[in-house]
Design brief:
The chain has 14 helices and three strands. It is mainly alpha-helical. Helix 3 crosses helix 6. The chain starts with a helix and ends in a 7-residue tail after the last helix.
């Protein structure tokens, strides 16, 4: 096994073990502040009083502390519909409910506003915005939708979007073949092969995500490159069979290798075809996005 493969697999296991690494201690629930009177705090239905419990998987992986956990909590509540459109969000109530400072609440609402989930206006306050205003390409929103009641729609939309992005990226990447990039893609395939042999789905998915992200980045199209985060988010959402890549199989590994071979040969048509085959390894995907018809 290469040094790269060993390092990546070790890191994946450590992250999955639940042990706190450097800078990650703040992902766990904070103790209740002494002297806080909880009587009279407005009830937020379907919410968790401990910020570290809901969305710990995502908040912990980013190591964003109280601020990040509050963004995660409120974002999930909005996306799930627990906080419906036009619902007023009063900073004082949020601070009391989640026992955080005004600064934490203010910064969290600014992040949510940047994602299009809320709007703040003078004399109106902060309110939840309708779905039509959300930045649905934001990786956090993709993740929140994938774990909420909109998960079926999110799975379908991600599949359709990836069918548009990745075959084109594979074709374009074949025209920008660089030896170091092909080596890196080959390293990812090696890591996936070792991970599959050991039943290590976490390492497989991380190497898979890097493979697809790198492929888009070397396509030579800056607009496509900006969409690489969408593909990474799709592949890293656990439990959602978005494509054949998210469950380790010999077939998916084989199609990854075919893509690299096509890049080495500067064969854009073959690279595109291999990517389309990769995206239809499992029947779930074929039902969502049918394979292109022969002309």
């Amino acid at each position: 096994m290469s040094t790269l493969a060993h390092t990546m697999m070790t890191a994946a296991r450590s992250a999955d073990s639940g042990l706190a690494g450097p800078g990650e201690l703040d992902r766990y629930p904070y103790a209740e502040a002494p002297g806080v009177d909880r009587v009279g705090i407005p009830a937020w239905e379907h919410s968790e009083p401990e910020l570290g419990r809901v969305g710990r998987r995502a908040a912990g992986s980013r190591g964003r502390g109280l601020h990040g956990q509050l963004v995660q909590q409120l974002g999930q509540m909005i996306v799930s519909g627990d906080l419906g459109a036009d619902r007023p969000l009063v900073p004082e109530e949020i601070g009391q409910r989640f026992e955080v400072s005004r600064t934490v609440v203010r910064e969290s609402l600014r992040v949510l506003e940047a994602k299009g989930l809320v709007s703040a206006r003078p004399n109106v306050g902060t309110r939840v915005r309708p779905v039509s205003d959300w930045n649905l390409l934001d990786p956090d929103i993709i993740e929140w939708r994938a774990f909420g009641p909109q998960r079926d729609d999110q799975r379908r939309e991600l599949s359709e979007l990836r069918w548009t992005i990745e075959p084109l990226a594979a074709r374009l990447a074949a025209g920008h073949g660089r030896e170091e990039v092909q080596q890196r893609l080959g390293d990812m395939i090696e890591i996936m092969g070792h991970a599959m042999a050991q039943g290590d789905a976490i390492t497989f998915s991380r190497a898979d995500a890097e493979f697809h992200s790198l492929l888009i980045q070397v396509a030579g199209n800056r607009m496509l490159e900006h969409l690489s985060g969408i593909v990474s988010a799709a592949l890293q959402v656990a439990g959602n069979p978005v494509t054949g890549c998210d469950r380790p199989t010999e077939a998916s590994l084989s199609y990854h290798a075919r893509i690299v071979d096509a890049l080495a040969a500067s064969d854009g048509a073959a690279a595109e075809a291999a990517m389309r085959q990769l995206l239809t390894v499992h029947p779930e995907v074929e039902r969502v996005v049918p394979a292109p018809r022969e002309h």
